[in-house]
């Protein structure tokens, strides 16, 4: 009987991979904030919401980090 290796990565490895690609996980509570709603509207107009792996937000990473740090 052969032992099969799982293709799943540990959660920490997955999170590290996400962060390396400048992807962020934001709390659901951010989605209702007017500041974030504006970004979501811009994202829908520019890129649409039909993505397999996340949502593309049309702003610089520094601006996004600043916004999300203020919303916490």
UniProtKB/TrEMBL annotation:
Name the domain of life this protein comes from.
Eukaryota
Protein's GO biological process: response to auxin
Classification via InterPro entries: SAUR_fam (IPR003676)
One Pfam entry for this protein is: Auxin_inducible
Q: Which UniProt keywords apply?
A: Developmental protein, Growth regulation
**So what family is this one in?**
Belongs to the ARG7 family.
State what protein this is by name: Auxin-responsive protein
């Amino acid at each position: 009987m052969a032992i099969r290796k799982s293709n799943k990565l540990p959660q920490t490895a997955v999170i590290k991979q996400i962060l390396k690609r400048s992807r962020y996980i934001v709390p659901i509570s951010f989605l209702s904030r007017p500041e974030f709603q504006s970004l979501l509207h811009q994202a829908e107009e520019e890129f649409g919401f039909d993505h397999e792996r996340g949502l593309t937000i049309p702003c610089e990473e520094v601006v996004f980090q600043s916004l999300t740090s203020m919303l916490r």
